[in-house]
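User: Before I run my own analysis I want an independent prediction to cross-check against. Here's the chain; please return only the structure tokens and, at the end, one sentence I can use as a sanity check.
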Amino acid sequence: MPRSMSNPTVAYQPKPVVKEKDRDPVAAGKRDAAFNRSASFNYFLTDKFEAGVALRGTEVKSIREGKANLKDAYGLLKDGECFLLNAHIGPFSHGNAMNHDSLRTRKLLLHKNEVRKLEGMTKQKGFTLIPTRLYFRNGRVKCELALAKGKQEWDKRATERKREADSEAKAAVARSQRR
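Assistant: Structure tokens:
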């Protein structure tokens, strides 16, 4: 017997799966919270160290919002401890009167043998500690410190020439692949 078209049956269609809201890439550790772009231009970066940063709660929340800047920051070794100076972490948007000072000195958490190694290296003439990036690892803020030696003006020009030559070569390869 033929089916009645007045009440057609429709095949079962599952409901579309609603994807959970993805975590912020900075908070999840997939993207850097702050990156010091001028560090590689102004310094020769040699050894890199990962250090924890002693922060207050509003500072962590500000870093998650992307309000950190490492442009003028540097590391300082004093009395067997390491500190981060001039790192700007903006005030938390929902903070109150107890909000943090944006340019305060923050302690870096390193092992004793790493501190001793850094002390020996920074005593050599011309070496300093420069923070290159801030990022999250397992919910904790980490700072990548690089042992750096300052570049002269002609070194900076050579770096710029090399960067331009590389970009021109990439553009030429891309043009040749399009044809």
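Sanity check: Helices lie at 37-42, 57-64, 112-122, 153-178.
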